[in-house]
Amino acid sequence: MNTTAREPLENASAQKDKPWLFRTYSGHSSAEASNELYKTNLGKGQTGLSVAFDLPTQTGYDSDHVLARGEVGKVGVPICHLGDMRTLFNEIPLEKMNTSMTINATSAWLLALYIAVAEEQGADRMALQGTVQNDIIKEYLSRGTYIFPPSPSMKLITDVVSFTYKEMPKWNPTNVCSYHLQEAGATPTQELSFALATAIAVLDAVRDSGQISPADFPAATGRISFFVNAGIRFITEMCKMRAFVDLWDEILLERYGVENEKFRRFRYGVQVNSLGLTEQQPENNVYRILLEMLAVVLSKKARARAVQLPAWNEALGLPRPWDQQWSLRLQQIVAFETDLLEYGDIFEGSVEIDRKVEELKQAAREELSRIEKMGGAVAAVESGYLKEALVQSNTNRVQSVISGDIPVVGVNRFTESTPSPLTQAGDGGIMTVDPAVEAEQIERLRAWRAARNQDEVTAALEALKTAATNGENIMPASIAAAKAGVTTGEWSEALRSIYGEYRAPTGVSGSVSNVSGGAIDAVRGKVSEAATSLGRPIKILVGKPGLDGHSNGAEQIAVAARDSGMEVVYEGIRLTPEQIVNAALEESVHLVGLSILSGSHNSLASEVVEKLKAAGLSDIPVVVGGIIPPEDAEKLKAAGVAAVYTPKDFDMMGIMSDMVDIVLRHDAAA
């Protein structure tokens, strides 16, 4: 008798639920390389695409712009024009594909390019399925890939929502994103309330624009989707998702009068937490990813529509295709080997679950009311309230890890470890992007510009500016510009000339460290003694060179340095090496600290060191923090960087003490 055979379903006629969409978030190097990766992943059973764009594409710069130096193809695929988009989806039938594009400030443009390519393939716009993230508000708070001020940014979101409702009814025109809020430190209550406040701001803007009639508005609300995060406290995270379902239904019914239950469904995709992945004992991340995924698939009432999982090694660097396959197989095992999809909601009637859900809902309602009294999410961004709240929450989280109040296995508990064979291979367990990729992309870009009809490009850009100036929907002019050969940088620059640019509040000034006791007292004493020796207080510059907008680390260093007694210069994200060097000169700083998480650390940090020397400031030491492989750390030190910090270096007071020592050593040697 075969005792290992699977028992048949008790009710053979029972209808199993369909699994969620299986995605992996991917894109790197070039459109051609990413296309090969997509086709490989689809061949392995992936059922939807999730496109990662590089930082120049996300922030509206062509690959040859000065701010794009070192960033091309690092955290995603560079898309400069229709030719790149055509290559990206070569031999992938877009009419049959469900494509998610993580793009925000330039979402209207990338959607225009996608439509243009789909139509070249012979696809009908009405049949296209997928999502653009198109959530600018959280960009001001977390990832930092915004371009324009809040008001025109909301106009662009509204244009995409209105256009797709009429022209692409199967498309999700905005994916209100709480994922990056959690990455920036948000508590479950903040994740719920800040995301829902953003969704309210979007719906209010769409309603008030008049582009969608009152009769059609309820159906338009049904196309709004969400993109969320799930952390390791998976009971709380699952309850958070059930709270999202209830609160969204409540908002659509009570605030907007949406009677049709179908339109009030909370539709969401998820990537589980990357912030919690550890550089130490990285193999433990596999278990973390599984537990976090369970939070968004176990409860049928609040099950995700699409899931993408990070790879175990993302705290080390860029995952390889094999690493992504491992994450994909995890999804497939849960969906197809377990009996999860054979049952209804297994949490219905649970006293504990109901209690936690109600607790989260009540706290979120209170925070939503507070934001509403400020004038809504946009006003709360402009005042700095939301950013300061996130920086404070993240400060509390970081300090709780340092103190051990939040246990992290392999980091502050059970740190004894045998070297992992997963990282011992010749590639160090990660994939690296060939530096030649940038030069090759720039060469293709220049060839594209040379081959196109410049008169058509000029006319398309003028039409785009006219549409923006007149308040017309931006999508028709953007699609025409895409087909004329306009580039990403040209599209963005045309709108910059109309809308202007924006620098969001940093949130640092209002945040207070929660460190207390001997650790910070010792560092404060050390800083005070150093000030006496130097003849003035230690002054450091915290800089974010390039286009990396993940500012959590920089913000935490700035807060810790300030609370240790140092003077801190922190001007936010997206600075050129020249701007950082000029600030170091003008502010007479003792040390420059660079935060770079995009993989461009070698080129950008080395350039800052070189430019400091050229400016006669070689006595100012440079330290660098980021996701930096050991071999790159050695290269940076050989190039003149004084110290390198990675996610394993989470003790803020230890870093502060190190920086004091570095300043004193360089002062003595000067």
TrEMBL record:
<keyword id="KW-0846">Cobalamin</keyword>
<dbReference type="Pfam" id="PF02310">
    <property type="entry name" value="B12-binding"/>
</dbReference>
<protein>
    <submittedName>
        <fullName>Methylmalonyl-CoA mutase</fullName>
    </submittedName>
</protein>
<dbReference type="Pfam" id="PF01642">
    <property type="entry name" value="MM_CoA_mutase"/>
</dbReference>
<dbReference type="InterPro" id="IPR036724">
    <property type="entry name" value="Cobalamin-bd_sf"/>
</dbReference>
<dbReference type="InterPro" id="IPR006099">
    <property type="entry name" value="MeMalonylCoA_mutase_a/b_cat"/>
</dbReference>
<feature type="domain" description="B12-binding">
    <location>
        <begin position="537"/>
        <end position="666"/>
    </location>
</feature>
<dbReference type="InterPro" id="IPR016176">
    <property type="entry name" value="Cbl-dep_enz_cat"/>
</dbReference>
<dbReference type="InterPro" id="IPR006158">
    <property type="entry name" value="Cobalamin-bd"/>
</dbReference>
<keyword id="KW-0479">Metal-binding</keyword>
<dbReference type="InterPro" id="IPR006159">
    <property type="entry name" value="Acid_CoA_mut_C"/>
</dbReference>
<keyword id="KW-0413">Isomerase</keyword>
<keyword id="KW-0170">Cobalt</keyword>
<comment type="similarity">
    <text>Belongs to the methylmalonyl-CoA mutase family.</text>
</comment>
<dbReference type="InterPro" id="IPR006098">
    <property type="entry name" value="MMCoA_mutase_a_cat"/>
</dbReference>
